[in-house]
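Priority: medium. Attachment 1 of 2:
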């Protein structure tokens, strides 16, 4: 919105600053961070009054969770989404289709997550909205996003899958592109959701991934950078750096209250929305495969659940002491802070590997 103040510039002066994505990204970050600090505690107080017993804790989960986390309110993702959406609307160009595509996915998955959290809290049960319903709605949202991407992306890239490490390799997926996008976005949303099981475990890797994808979006959205790096130029995606900066600011504001011991949980409201957002950004920038590297932690968490379920159905035995895999390490005796910090380090390393794909061609 503030971008349009640049119309009052004659090529210089303070209003000209609003033309620059980097300047507006900084503004988006600090706006979202301030939003989190201003509304964090009032929101937590409201959630405590409304939720009573807080988020229901799994009876079959780690014993420490029943003792230490009982009574903690959920739906803290509302704080992140509020900061993210408000900040993006203030600082981003509102005539940019990629901004609206990613906002659409984020808000839609956030509403699905909110409904699930509300059902859990109101029923005081860990079972919320049916997984089939959540998955079905997610597929519809992702399908719309996939079609939207094919419309707004350049004709030469529409329906194409870019392969990292190669300069000009594109795979024409044809009618399979939209189903592929559905897999990427829904998979990303659910993988982040599965990772969100310990205080601060999911939000930091999400912010690291967002920072990485923001840099990628800025690079592929500039002709000079994309030519130098020999990556596919997707005009307009640079504006997504503002969205990513707002996500990081909102995430830090939330982490202030979610750091162990958490005063509030993100809930499905936040995890599904943020995971969906990462998937949508990867689709917009033609870096879907790179997302699997940058978000490798989320991939491992999801695979641990899939492996556990399939192996148990076939043999009646378990591969892990408990899935997702962060609970396996809890069962082994690792302290929660050890797991969280080590997973953060892994996320940072994977993000750097993802960024390396920009230059290794």
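Attachment 2 of 2:
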């Amino acid at each position: 919105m503030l971008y349009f103040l640049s119309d009052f510039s004659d090529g210089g002066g303070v209003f000209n600053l609003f033309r620059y994505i980097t300047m507006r990204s900084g503004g988006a970050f600090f706006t979202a961070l301030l939003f989190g600090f201003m509304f964090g505690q009032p929101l937590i107080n409201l959630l405590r009054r409304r939720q009573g017993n807080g988020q229901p804790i799994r009876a079959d989960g780690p014993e420490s969770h029943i003792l230490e986390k009982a009574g903690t309110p959920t739906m803290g993702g509302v704080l992140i989404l509020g900061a993210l959406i408000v900040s993006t609307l203030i600082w981003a160009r509102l005539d940019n289709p990629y901004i609206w595509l990613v906002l659409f996915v984020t808000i839609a998955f956030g509403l699905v997550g909110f409904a699930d959290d509300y059902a859990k809290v109101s029923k005081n049960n860990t079972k919320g909205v049916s997984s089939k319903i959540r998955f079905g709605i997610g597929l519809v949202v992702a399908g719309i996003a996939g079609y939207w991407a094919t419309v707004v992306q350049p004709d030469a890239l529409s329906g194409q899958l870019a392969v990292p490490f190669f300069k000009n390799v594109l795979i024409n997926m044809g009618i399979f592109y939209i189903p592929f996008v559905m897999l990427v976005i829904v998979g990303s949303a659910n993988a982040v959701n599965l990772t969100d099981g310990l205080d601060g475990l999911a939000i930091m890797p999400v912010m690291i991934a967002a920072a990485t994808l923001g840099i990628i979006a800025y690079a592929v959205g500039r002709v000079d950078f994309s030519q130098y790096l020999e990556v596919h130029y997707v005009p307009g995606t640079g504006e997504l750096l503002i969205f990513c900066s707002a996500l990081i600011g909102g995430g830090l504001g939330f982490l202030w209250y979610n750091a162990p011991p958490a005063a509030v949980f993100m809930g499905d409201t936040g995890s599904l929305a943020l995971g969906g957002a990462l998937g949508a950004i990867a689709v917009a920038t033609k870096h879907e495969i790179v997302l699997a590297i940058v978000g490798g932690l989320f991939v491992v968490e999801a695979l641990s659940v899939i492996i556990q379920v399939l192996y148990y159905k076939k043999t009646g035995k378990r591969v892990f002491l408990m899935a997702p895999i962060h609970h396996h390490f809890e069962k082994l005796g690792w302290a929660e802070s050890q797991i969280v910090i080590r997973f953060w380090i892994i996320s940072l390393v994977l993000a750097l590997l993802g960024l390396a794909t920009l230059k290794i061609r």
